[in-house]
Structures are given as C-alpha cells and as structure tokens.
Specification:
This protein is of the alpha+beta class and 163 residues long. Helices cover 12% and strands 24% of the residues. It contains 1 helix and 10 strands; from the N terminus they run H-E-E-E-E-E-E-E-E-E-E. The protein has a 4-stranded antiparallel beta sheet, with no helix packed on it. The chain has a 3-stranded antiparallel beta sheet with strand order 1-10-9, with no helix packed on it. A 3-stranded antiparallel beta sheet has the order 2-3-4, with no helix packed on it. A hairpin with a 4-residue loop joins strand 2 and strand 3. The longest helix has 20 residues. It is globular, with a radius of gyration of 26 Å. This is Cytochrome bc1 complex Rieske iron-sulfur subunit.
C-alpha cells in the first residue's frame, strides 16, 4: 500500500496522516509529563526551574571552581593500602601509601569482567581470580597478562576527581 493514497470518503485518512496524528499525541503526552506546575510546588515551597541543567549542591554555583561537582570520592573513602571500586564512575581508586592516590580502569584485562574489590594490596577480579597491583595496575596473579590501564586522578582538598 502506498503513502500516497486517494481519499475515498470524507472520514478517510492516509496512513501518513494517521501516523502524524499519533506522533503528535505522543509528543503532547511527553511534554505534559515533563512540564512543571506553574504555581510551584506548594508542598515544599520550591519554584519551578528553567529546565536547564541542575546545579549540584557542591562547588561554586556562580561558575567558579567546580571541581567539587565532579568529585568521585573523598580521601577518607579510600583506605591506605587499599582502594575503592567505583563501577558507576568507571574507575578504581587506590591509596598505596598515605596521601598517594591512583586511578585504574575497573575492567579486568583477561576477559572483560568488572573487578570486584580491593583487598590485600591488590585489585581483584573474582571472575577468574586475576589480581592487580594497587600501585601501578600490574598483574600480580593471572590469568590476566596485561595490567589495568591507569586513569589519572587528582586530589584537591579532600576531594578526588578525574585529572
């Protein structure tokens, strides 16, 4: 059947017109769901926003140094001689010595499993037992043969972020 059909009666629509109407209804539903209450939120007293990006509660909302808004963890979150797997952020942060922080890719180089923990001075993949150094990501126990790639991190104050 062609999109270019002749109308055969006063109430007949082409497929194109029907789909366009359905799309308009769908768009209206989405826009209505995304719209705010123009009167503000009476329960909390908050006024609606402009719809722009949310301003994080950390960092300088005036546009200054925003390093805090990109913080991965605090220095207190990462134990000396250990580390923390931050899978959602795509990094493992370690502290091999007091005040020395390192970042590594959280995906094991053996078969692509995510590493699961940092314990006993190594970053550990429980899929097949590979262990990596918290100092440089080198392989401490296989079956992995390649080190974890480094991910540069920086510390400003007590906040750790990507460099």
């Amino acid at each position: 059947m062609s999109d270019h059909q002749e109308l055969t009666g006063p109430g007949t629509q082409t497929r194109r017109a029907l789909l366009a109407g359905a799309g308009a209804v769908g768009a209206a539903v989405v826009l209505t769901a995304c719209g705010g209450n123009d009167a503000g939120d009476g329960a909390t007293g908050q006024q609606p926003t402009s719809g722009g990006p949310a301003v994080p509660s950390t960092g300088d909302a005036g546009g200054g140094d925003r390093q805090g808004s990109q913080s991965l963890a605090t220095t207190a979150d990462v134990p000396v001689g250990g580390g923390k797997v931050l899978a959602a952020q795509g990094v493992v942060i370690t502290q091999p010595a007091a005040g020395q922080f390192k970042g590594f890719d959280p995906i094991c180089t053996h078969q692509g499993c995510p590493v699961s923990n940092v314990d006993g001075g190594t970053i550990n993949c429980t899929c097949h037992g590979s262990k990596f150094s918290i100092e440089d990501g080198s392989v401490k126990a296989g079956p992995a043969t390649r080190p974890l790639p480094a991910k540069p991190v920086k510390v400003v104050g007590d906040q750790i972020s990507f460099a």
